[in-house]
Every structure is written in structure tokens, then in C-alpha cells.
Specification:
By secondary structure, the protein is mostly helical. Helices cover about 55% and strands about 10% of the residues. It has 10 helices and 9 strands. It has a 3-stranded antiparallel sheet with strand order 5-7-8. Helix 3 crosses helix 9 and helix 9 runs antiparallel to helix 10. It is globular and about 60 Å long.
Length: about 270
């Protein structure tokens, strides 16, 4: 919501500062304006801007991914917060995301003239999505997973191996407060889908990333029991996001392929569960 961009920018800056203070390597924020200087503009096209440190290294957007390092780096972001919770606001919540995108899924499913494959995917996902609509269901899953400030966009493009070999996540532009499983499952999807290299998608990476994460910051038995619910919830949200772009740009083949891959995996995986 654009009305909260400035608030979220301030939240992002504070979160990065708290993480770096706890030893998490990431791109720090560079102060762009001395306190006494009110002439320097720190906005871009009217929106607040942050200036980040440059991280020497390589972003590996194309598979194969160093999943052990990815899982350990994400686990570290969460673990330091679980051990030493930062004093940050929690008003940017994961349930806000759910309350935006679950209704979008419902409205998209009613769209006339959907492509056949997309329409069939909606039909297959609908029973799984219905479980996610009930707030009491989500509240149960959330309560069974430790809440932290999530990265919010755990993708290959936001992961870099530094020149000295440090594994880092950067770009907390989508950060929010909520159950850590939101980050874990979102990352498992994204590293499986391989971003624009969709022809190299491999859902064999899904569980591998979860296990590498858990080796560094173990999942609880309750989180493992809720894994099908989390796959359904995150999958439905991600599917709706892809379809939103597809409806705006019908020739967007990457979005179509990603949407169908997400739906197929969710239905097969949760159905088996």
C-alpha cells in the first residue's frame, strides 16, 4: 500500500541495522544525509530511498544453487532474532499479505474467459485455498511457528556469495513480521522455480532447501506437521501473484509457466499429504 511506503522504508532500515548488529552479513544502509544538512534529497520520484553498501561477489540466479549456504544464511537471519528478539514494530504482518492475496485468488477464479489450463488450476487449488481463507486456521499455523522479521523475498536474485565466500541475503524491501515458515516455504518455491530460468525448474530442490535450513535452525515437530498447510497457503498466494501479471499481460509466458508449475506442485504434494 503506497500510503505506507515511507513507514516500511524506515522499518527496513531499522531491521537491517538490528541484523547487522547481531552479526548477520548483508548490505548495510549508508547514511546519505548528515543530520544538519536538509538540502540533500533522499527520495526518488517522490518515494523515500535507501542507499546500500555494495557487496563484491556473485549473484547466482541460474541453477545449480548452493542450497546448503542458502539454507544456513536464511536460518541465521531467523535464529539470531529467536535468540535475541529485536525491538522493532510488528505492524507489517504476514497476515496482511494473506488478507490481500487470498481475496485476489477468489476474485481471479471468477474471471470470465480464463485460459483452460489456468482455469483448471483454479479448480484444483480451490479446495486447498478454502482451508486458508479461515482466519482461525491461519492463526493455528502461525502460532505453531516462531515469529520473526522475515526477509520476505527469498529468491536467487537476492542471495549473493561474497568475494571472501560469505553467503548473504540482501534487499529486505518486502520484509514483514510473522511465522518463519513463510520465508522458508517461499524460498523453497523460488529456488525450485529458478526465476527466469524456468526451464531449469526442479522441485527436488524444495525439500533440500528446507532440510539445509533445518540443519542450522531446526524446525519443530509442529512445523513439520503443518508443512502441507504451509505449502498450500504460500502456493495459493504465489499462484495469485503470477496470475495477476498474466491477466495484465496475457503473452507473459514466464508467468503462465510459473503459475502452472506452482499449482501442479501444490496439488500433487498436498494431495499426497
Amino acid at each position: 500500500r503506497r500510503s505506507r511506503v515511507a513507514e516500511h522504508t524506515a522499518y527496513e532500515e531499522k531491521l537491517i541495522g538490528e541484523l547487522k548488529a547481531r552479526g548477520i552479513p548483508t548490505a548495510g544502509v549508508i547514511a546519505a544525509r548528515p543530520a544538519a544538512d536538509t538540502t540533500v534529497d533522499t527520495t526518488v520520484e517522490g518515494f523515500p530511498a535507501l542507499l546500500f553498501e555494495r557487496i563484491p561477489g556473485a549473484v547466482q540466479q541460474r541453477p545449480e544453487y548452493p542450497l546448503a549456504e542458502v539454507g544456513a544464511a536464511l536460518a541465521a537471519i531467523h535464529r539470531v532474532q529467536m535468540e535475541h528478539p529485536p525491538a522493532l514494530e510488528t505492524s507489517f504482518s504476514f497476515d496482511d499479505t494473506c488478507l490481500i492475496w487470498l481475496p485476489v485468488f477468489e476474485s481471479q477464479a471468477q474471471q470470465p474467459n480464463l485460459e483452460d489450463e489456468i482455469a483448471q488450476a483454479f479448480v484444483a487449488l480451490a479446495p486447498l485455498a478454502e482451508r486458508c481463507f479461515a482466519g482461525e486456521n491461519r492463526a493455528t499455523w502461525f502460532a505453531r511457528s516462531p515469529s520473526v522479521h522475515n526477509h520476505g523475498d527469498v529468491t536467487p536474485k537476492n542471495f549473493i556469495v561474497g568475494a571472501a565466500g560469505e553467503a548473504r541475503f540482501f534487499d529486505f524491501n518486502n520484509a514483514f513480521y510473522g511465522p518463519r515458515m513463510a520465508d522458508v516455504i517461499d524460498g523453497a518455491f523460488e529456488f525450485s522455480l529458478a526465476e527466469k530460468y524456468i526451464h531449469l525448474a526442479d522441485f527436488g530442490r524444495f525439500d533440500a532447501l528446507i532440510e539445509h535450513y533445518s540443519a542450522a535452525n531446526p524446525l519443530t515437530p509442529a512445523e513439520r506437521a503443518d508443512l502441507p498447510a504451509w505449502i498450500a497457503l504460500i502456493g495459493v498466494i504465489k499462484f495469485a501473484k503470477e496470475v495477476r501479471v498474466l491477466l495484465e499481460r496475457p503473452k507473459e509466458n514466464l508467468r503462465r509457466t510459473r503459475a502452472l508449475a506452482i499449482a501442479d506442485f501444490v496439488v500433487q504434494r498436498v494431495g499426497k499429504a
